[in-house]
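User: For my dataset I need records formatted as: sequence, then structure tokens, nothing else. Please produce one.
Assistant:
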Amino acid sequence: MVAVALGVWARQHVGTGVAVNLARFSSGAAAKAWLGSAALVLAIVQGVTGRMMMRGYADPATAVAHRWSGRVAVLVTVPVAVQCLYAFGWSGATTSALLHSALGCLFYGAFVTKMLLLRRPGVPGWLLAVAGGVLLAVLAGVWLTSALWFFTGHGLSF
């Protein structure tokens, strides 16, 4: 429902074309690329620590790292999502832009789904693992259709 609501709003919203520059970054696109990359790295930490916990190899510090890497990962995606939705809205101009728009909305839907599953008693561990894997895969898709494109064209510039 969250993914659909974001998609409908983004489709109806006409992008302003105005990028909001964040401190220390040369442009809104640079900020999005670096924050998106940070979120992806943190999501990979989530995947590794989640797998460790599922396999029983984790100590209490691993669980703390898992929770906090997830919290920070989602936190750094918020300015990216606001920037995308506000400045650009939904885009179907190219296949990559369409895929990016759809995956960006799907990311938040997958996130809410995982959070709801976490709070529901009796949810099997494998279902949480699948939800986490979907979340990581969707975020990787968002990164591939945005940050990778930016870094390929602009280098590792801030």
